[in-house]
């Protein structure tokens, strides 16, 4: 199955919603959710995106959840038409590329992003695991902002320190707006957080960091079948204080789109 051409990509869904995380929290975005992820974070709430689905769903009217099903893969012209249909004047603040891991579709994005910028005039926001600096480089000129994860091994089960550092350095060199998201749970090792703080501070202590308490998952319905526990209030207070010794902006915000019943 070819998932990575420069003219087609496999998608999960296209819809209009309120961003629930990070620097753009509360803003209205057109979400393009790409299929496939190469990581397996223990807390993942998007495990349905891990595989290359044969179909995607597309919202017909912004915010009405009147989805129609379409076969995958999708070409650039088709996706452009779907985004233009969502782009009601004045409604959206930006376009969110999310997943899965959008950078697994970098050749497609390199073709698509200049077209969608020209057609909509909307800023482009990339939400990523922050572990694929080579693919990032190919689309950086077409991005306005990047929300990258730093995966803590004690929480996610993933370890990508070197890639995260290269990724962040590439963002700062390009002058794209960048912020960091770190998922924390009761299992968080403070040594991981210290290492993350030092990694960010070594690039720039001004880069905003968001500590995101994990949204507890039902262990039976999750592929890893692990019990994921949210941190205690005392843990969050302690971790924020610890990170603020090295960084200027460390905010603790849970996933607000879950509270608002967004997708
Ligand atoms: S990077 Fe995101 S989509 Fe991929 S496994 Fe981790 S949380 Fe899930």
Automatic annotation (TrEMBL):
Catalyzes the complex heterocyclic radical-mediated conversion of 6-carboxy-5,6,7,8-tetrahydropterin (CPH4) to 7-carboxy-7-deazaguanine (CDG), a step common to the biosynthetic pathways of all 7-deazapurine-containing compounds. Homodimer. Its EC number is 4.3.99.3. Substrate binds at residues 18-20, 33, 98. It comes from the Bacteria. Pathway: Purine metabolism; 7-cyano-7-deazaguanine biosynthesis. This is 7-carboxy-7-deazaguanine synthase. [4Fe-4S] cluster binds at residues 37, 41, 44. It comes from Aliterella atlantica CENA595. Mg(2+) binds at residue 46. One of its GO terms (molecular function) is 4 iron, 4 sulfur cluster binding.
């Amino acid at each position: 199955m070819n998932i990575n051409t420069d003219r087609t990509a496999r998608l999960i869904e296209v819809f209009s919603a309120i961003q629930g995380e990070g620097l753009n929290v509360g803003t209205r975005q057109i979400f393009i959710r790409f299929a496939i992820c190469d990581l397996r974070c223990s807390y993942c709430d998007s495990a349905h995106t891990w595989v290359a689905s044969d179909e995607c769903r597309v919202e017909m009217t912004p915010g009405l959840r009147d989805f129609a099903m379409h076969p995958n893969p999708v070409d650039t012209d088709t996706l452009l038409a779907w985004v233009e249909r969502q782009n009601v004047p004045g409604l959206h603040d930006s376009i969110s590329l999310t997943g899965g891991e959008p950078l697994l579709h970098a050749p497609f994005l390199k073709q698509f992003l200049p077209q969608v910028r020209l057609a909509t005039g909307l800023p482009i926001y990339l939400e990523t695991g922050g572990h694929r600096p080579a693919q990032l480089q190919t689309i950086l000129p077409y991005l306005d902002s990047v929300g990258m994860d730093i995966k803590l091994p004690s929480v996610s089960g993933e370890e990508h320190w070197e890639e995260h550092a290269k990724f962040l350095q590439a963002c700062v060199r390009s002058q794209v707006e960048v912020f960091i998201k770190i998922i924390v749970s009761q299992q968080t090792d403070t040594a991981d957080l210290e290492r993350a703080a030092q990694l960010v501070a070594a690039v720039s202590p001004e880069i905003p960091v968001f500590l995101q308490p994990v949204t507890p998952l039902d262990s039976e319905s999750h592929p890893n079948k692990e019990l994921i526990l949210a941190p205690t209030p005392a843990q969050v207070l302690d971790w924020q204080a610890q990170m603020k010794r090295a960084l200027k902006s460390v905010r603790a915000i849970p996933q607000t789109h879950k509270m608002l019943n967004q997708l």
